[in-house]
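Please review this one:
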Amino acid sequence: MTTITISDKFQGRGGMRHLDEPWQELLKFDGGTFSETDTQISFIATNGQVVDVKKRDIADITNNYIVYRGTHKKNIDSLVGGSVFVVQSNNDNKRFTIKSTLGSGFYLVVDLSNEASNDKIDTDDYLKKVELDGQHLAYLANAFARGLFPKPETGELLYKTISHGKCVLFFKLDYYEKLMTVIEKSYDEGLFASSNSEREWNNLKYTLKCALIEKDTDKSLLQAYSLPF
């Protein structure tokens, strides 16, 4: 069985600081055990409390890490528990971070000893998808044409038509990250605010940020996004 060691910890800040007594209970994950199946990850503390993660319950994923939604329970038989995030590095599958869902809340960095899965997360299995209407699609194409946003290479952006004027776009993760970095930079530098279409550009930005994660998409049902120029 694989043993857990806490290598870093943070109790939280300000109003998000974990109370001392429950914090001491959380620290009992040190010396606990870790188990993993094809569908689930479990961290079991020395006092019986558990953090369970269903691998399909993904909050976010990039080329560097995957964030799961987990449940922190007082013991393995509890039917309910508190919500936590569990972050798994794609570069080191023997290190996880169990953290509060609140921005300034607690975190525990835990390292695994003995044998744990060394399989690298295959990010090619995942895409980010978002539905865009005709106006969103027009502004996106305009941004590509003017060189405002980085153009996708072959296979980085796919789509399917769902109704007249509407499409669902599917982004490869690395391209999505690159695109959103440029969009956020344009927003921060006031390029949207100084245009005559600030609201429309902001709507496109917010819509793209709401892209959802999808695994094992049947790409044979999708078409390559074609730049209209």
Observations:
- The radius of gyration is 21 Å.
- The helical segments are 20-26, 134-145, 173-188, 198-209.
- The first helix runs from residue 20 to 26.
- The chain has two domains: 2-113, 123-224.
